[in-house]
Amino acid sequence: MTRVAVIGGGRIGEALVVGLIDAGYAIKDLVVAEHDGGRAADLSSRLGVRVTDAAADAAEGADLVVLAVKPSDVDRVLTDLGRIELGGQREQVLVSMVAGVSTSRYENKLPAGFPVVRVMPNTPILVGQGMIVIAPGRYARPGHLETVGEVLGAVGRVTTVAENQMDAVTAVSGSGPAYCFLVAEALIDGAVGVGLSLRTATELVVQTMVGAAAMLQESGESPNDLRAAVTSPGGTTAAAVRELERAGVRSAFIEAVHAAKERSERHGSATE
Ligand SMILES: NC(=O)C1=CN([C@@H]2O[C@H](COP(=O)(O)OP(=O)(O)OC[C@H]3O[C@@H](n4cnc5c(N)ncnc54)[C@H](OP(=O)(O)O)[C@@H]3O)[C@@H](O)[C@H]2O)C=CC1
Ligand SMILES: O=C(O)[C@@H]1CCC=N1
């Protein structure tokens, strides 16, 4: 099995490890580097994986070295990885999940020709329902992409784009679950406001989102058509949607995606 080292056992690093284990990945083929001692101990006892505090230690012997650290920590990790002979003993690929940081930035610091693949996952990888977008760097060959796709395909749907689309991707599917959770929070607030208990409100909102998502995925119809089918003439949905449009919800989402893309771009320019 492909050996995977995850550098950074934070939110997305842990989600990846849990998702892979739940999908049947062998624990012996996973290792995590996490420099927060408390978190490292917690991950090791809860997940049963080997956790080390040194990125170089984790990367040694791994086929995929997955970076899941904050953009500001990338330099430190690359310096640490410089202590070992990356790609010397075996074919290795660096997989960066870091928002905004380009493959060329890694390529410039890694041994010449080292393959780098930029990936944007999202937290639903935790439950095998992630959206994982891949962009190959200059030296990533089809075989490398296949390996990355195979491993990450266990935790969600994988698609490939050109790297110049990755900031947009980050703004849509990377941050996207947070937008959905915000909508859920607001709907639950509304449901409680019209007299439902928090428990009932949560049940109704969650299942409504699950059902709507399933229709989006399975019906082949556009969101607009699906919404029209809920909207009876002169009815409740029309009254609600009029309020949402009056409040500028649509344009707020559009602006939100622009803001996220710009933030991702700034991560890149801050570290180039
Ligand atoms: N959260 C998400 O939904 C997504 C995140 N990402 C990307 O993933 C990256 C991580 O995000 P997230 O998981 O939210 O962040 P977290 O801060 O939760 O996780 C990063 C973890 O890495 C640790 N760390 C930092 N440097 C090292 C090192 N040299 N060796 C070992 N461990 C280290 C941090 O420890 P400490 O805090 O002590 O520094 C922290 O525990 C970001 O670049 C983000 O853009 C991508 C897609 C989705
Ligand atoms: O908020 C962030 O910066 C990261 C990138 C995508 C999702 N979380």
TrEMBL record:
Domain Pyrroline-5-carboxylate reductase dimerisation per the UniProt entry, residue ranges: 163-265
A GO MF label: pyrroline-5-carboxylate reductase activity
Superkingdom, natural source: Bacteria
Keywords: Amino-acid biosynthesis, Cytoplasm, NADP, Oxidoreductase, Proline biosynthesis
Main location: cytoplasm
Cellular compartments annotated: Cytoplasm
Enzyme's top EC category: oxidoreductase
Pathway of action: Amino-acid biosynthesis; L-proline biosynthesis; L-proline from L-glutamate 5-semialdehyde: step 1/1
Domain Pyrroline-5-carboxylate reductase catalytic N-terminal residues, every copy: 3-100
InterPro entries reported in the protein's UniProt record: 6-PGluconate_DH-like_C_sf, NAD(P)-bd_dom_sf, P5C_Rdtase_cat_N, P5CR-like_CS, P5CR_dimer, Pyrroline-COOH_reductase
A Pfam family hit: P5CR_dimer
EC numbers for this chain: 1.5.1.2
Catalytic activity: L-proline + NAD(+) = (S)-1-pyrroline-5-carboxylate + NADH + 2 H(+); L-proline + NADP(+) = (S)-1-pyrroline-5-carboxylate + NADPH + 2 H(+)
Stated family: Belongs to the pyrroline-5-carboxylate reductase family.
Role noted for this protein: Catalyzes the reduction of 1-pyrroline-5-carboxylate (PCA) to L-proline.
HAMAP family with a match to the protein in the record: P5C_reductase
Protein name, as recorded: Pyrroline-5-carboxylate reductase
Natural source organism: Skermania pinensis
Gene name of the encoded protein: proC
